[in-house]
Amino acid sequence: MNTKTETESNQLQSAASDEVAISMSKVNKWFGNFHVLKDIDLSIYKGERIVICGPSGSGKSTLIRCINRLEEHQDGDISVNGVTLDSNLKNIHAIRSDVGMVFQSFNLFPHLTVLENCTLAPVWVRNMTKTEAQEIAMEYLTRVKIPEQAEKYPGQLSGGQQQRVAIARSLCMNPQIMLFDEPTSALDPEMISEVLDVMIELAETGMTMLVVSHEMGFARRVADRVIFMDYGEIVEQNTPEEFFANPKSDRTKLFLSQILSH
Amino acid sequence: MTEITEQNKVSEKFVPKPSLPPPPNTTGAIGWLRYNLFDGFLSSCLTVLSLIAIGFMCVNFYEWAFAKAVLEAANRQECRITPTEFGTCWAGVKFWFTRFIYGRYTDTEIWRVNSAAIILILWMIPVWLPRVTAKLNIALSGVLIFPFLAGYMFLGGDRNWFMEIMVSVALGCFITVIIHSLLCLFTGAGISKWIIQLTGFSNRSERLHKFPVIMFAVIIFLLSLFLISDVAFKEMPNNLWGGLFLTLVISGIGIASALPAGILLALGRRSKMTVIRVLCVAFIELFRSVPLITILFMATTMFPLFLPEGFHINKLASAIVAVCLFAAAYMAEVVRGGLQAIPKGQYEAAEAVGLTYWQSMGFIVMPQALKYMIPNIVSNFMGLFKDTTLVSIIGLYDLLGMINAVSQDPSWIGLHHEPLFTAAVIFFIGCFAMSKYSQYLERNLGAGHGR
Known about the structure:
The complex is a heterodimer. Chain A is of the alpha/beta class.
């Protein structure tokens, strides 16, 4: 699969349905005095693939981290698959087990093998037996193309391999939504494409995906909607064709001209 | 091709220079001596002086320990080597050695202490055997359940229903551990696999596998209940316990309880719940700021004053509780230090896959943090082991207490140095073993982690 092809014809068919997967209304969040999310209103439909971009400090990571409550929003409502996020621990655990997350710094568990990384949560959260969990884990490790590394420790893998393990680890929980927090930012240039390939394949399966990323080629190719954020607000959102061809806001134009100038 | 051969003709042939030997007296033993001990006039002087001092001490020690040694004597007076001079009375140490180890425990009952020690060793050996599986369960059962069995073997007397059950459980666990380890060693499969196979559950669903195992546990429990039903040990009240045995009991309980208590306190101190955090901080700071000896005095002399009349608290029990609380407070800070070394991403990743707080602590954070903490934990254990000698001040006859008592004995009056030297050797052996084991643990736990 060639990720560099950015022609319109290669654009994936949208898998978005009418069913709302995540809805956020009037979401506000502060870090101390810093107003990091300002009145965010956003609905994400099942099967929709969304790329969020924006300058650093614009609140994009915080936005997706609010969805599985790694960050707590202070005002407004977030509901995921119809479950409202509040301080009810049961709801939080239910949402977390249905929402997979991939981090910029992989965050694999270094004291467990790749296979154990993938089976831990299914065994303890989904109550699978060990053999079931291992079968599923091997299936997903095969899908991310590293079944042969199953017995190794994360520290023995390259960055790209680690990130693919992290994706497999999330998929083993059979999530309905996947969050990606700058999944390729910590990778060497050569390893970015192997991770993006896996993400594109995942998109083809119709997974609801929220990706914080500056990989504009990936956005063009995969996204149903591109969201641009700055100063804790959603400045602009549109289909990738419109977003890249006719940005409406001058802030978006400036951002695009800077990241696409090289 | 022709070009290359032509170039070869004109280019010079490179011959590496032969390696020459290093300048004389810079390598080997002589080089080391010159560099480290005789590097200049001052250094040489210091070396010579130190050698003289060390030699002097060695000669003196030899004279004290061996040349003047008296190995056979019935009392201190017989240890004289000249009418005015006492020899080094190893005979006294020999005479009292059993007392140093067991205190005033009745001679005919000492086998109980020894067998409890042997049971503990047998219980723990499988943890170090590479072929044995379920090591964590074995170690945990040893720490949590063995004390009931040991407690009864040491104390004896009547058993109430609770002790009856706990002693049977402990005995059952012990039997299971031994069978399991032997099966692992000789057949390579653990006890649960054997049970499942023998009962024919192996081709049934994995979810049903626990039932035959539970059945086995019940049978073993009933068997042990039956085994101990006729066993009754003579009561040995704990004021008879003493010597190294008592030191090991106090420090053993302190060590075993310090780590779990310390983990809970450290987690409490980092908790988001204000009440829990404040309580933990208060406990830790209070017990860290007060000397152990003060806590011991308060536990044994002041605390009983607050109790209702007629309510009696065992001195040993209150000393043990005091030591445990003190050790827990120190351990809490060690654990907190280890927890801070774990990156935030690990907590987040554990939360993001849906693990609960206790699961993410138990499976993700603690296993990693404990590895960083090993050197500090073991230092703490060594400190605790040595600090338990303070209980001799509140009138318990631990190893040091026994040594003091012996020096008061009319026929052995003045026997101080030899027993103290013996105690020093015993403590050194214990602590050095712990230190070596911690180094071994560090090397081995770090092995599989790669970068």
